Amino acid sequence: MFTKSSFSPAWWLKNAHLQTIAAKFFRRGYTIDTTNETLELPDGDFVDLAWTEKVSSTCSRPIVVVLHGLEGSKNSHYAKGMLSAIKAQGWVGVLMHFRGCSGRPNRMAKSYHSGQTCDVDYFSQYLASSYPEAKKAIVGFSLGGNVLTKYLAEQKQNIYQVACVICAPLDLSSCSNRINRGFSRVYQKYLVDMLRTSTIEKINANLLSNIDRNHLKKVRSIRDFDQMVTAPVNGFRDANDYYQQASGRDVLKQITTPCLIIHASDDPFLCHENTTAVGALPKEITFEVSTRGGHVGFIGGKNPFKPRFWLEQRIPEFFKRYL
How many other β-carbons are positioned within 10 Å of the β-carbon of residue 11? Predict the structure, then answer.
């Protein structure tokens, strides 16, 4: 069901861009210690995991998985905040880096993308077999949220008691158009620069011989990058085919896991109209929409020196019902 969010933005951060940028600013010096683990994948590649603590196979405390956004990592402001919030509940947090996002390039040409669920599935199976006594939850931010919707729809008998999707580009085509307009192009440039750098690393490692380096340097938009790199590397005909197959919006009705979706109508990364054009939702989904919040911002509070990170309260609150 659709519902109005209880989030109220800080009086000094009502602009969508301020919400988006301030979240990163306030957490710039924040750190969280993690225990790192490498999970070898069936195809010969790997993903790196970041745990809030080392746990034994007999762990019975809830384990909460975090999926980051495009070119994110355990050092992303929202990831650090959420892992800390999970730890504060007495739960165990673990962030799964998508391929190539942990600071080490992956071994294969294949990359992560908005619809790539096989690594999440394999990791989830690993969790189920390694920690059978622990209840499990999962939260995905931005791109990781879209990946999560695809995974939940594909794996109806999954291991998770509850899930949460935050600021996800559920309609990839309209989102690629939205981030290519106005001030949002600043965010686009930031992301494209990182994507270009990681792709050049693969070219240098002779993993992407079919990608022209000079052409890549001219790419300025997310759509052009997806057309040139994401789509062909991952078996899609073109960017439009990738967007159609990988978008999570049209598979929401297939989800049977209790799931909270949080979206801000002023998100400068997402097209609000297309993101929320989902029709009837299954009873397991609560789709919360706020007027303000920006992209993974949601900063409240009355004191500019003591911002309140609403997501770090709302998500554990929702998870508690099931954990």
Answer: 10
* Beta-bridge partner residues of 66: 95, 139
Question: Any catalytic annotation for residue 267?
Answer: yes
Q: What are phi and psi of 133, to 5 degrees?
A: -90, -10
Catalytic one of 171, 226, 266, 267: 267
Distances in Å between the Cα of 188 and the Cα atoms of 157, 197, 233, 269, 299 are 36, 14, 21, 9, 22
Number of domains in the chain: 2
Short-list 119, 131, 40, 122, CA closest to 93: 131
Tracing tokens 């989904």 back to the chain, one arrives at 285
CB-based contact 301:11 (threshold 8 Å): no
Q: Which two tokens stand for residue 52?
A: 């809030």
User: pLDDT digit string (tens) for 43-91?
Assistant: 999 999 999 999 999 999 999 999 999 999 999 999 999 999 999 999 9
Does 279 have pLDDT greater than 90? no
Q: State both tokens at 14.
A: 């009502």
The CB density around residue 265, as the number of other CB atoms within 10 Å, is 16
Q: Which of 142, 174, 221, 247 is catalytic?
A: 142
User: What is the reported pLDDT for 30?
Assistant: 87
The pTM score is 0.98
Can you give the residue range of the structural domain that contains 149? 2-171+253-320
d(CA 59, CA 72): 28
Report the C-alpha gap between 158 and 154 in whole angstroms: 9
State the CATH number of the domain containing residue 158: 3.40.50.1820
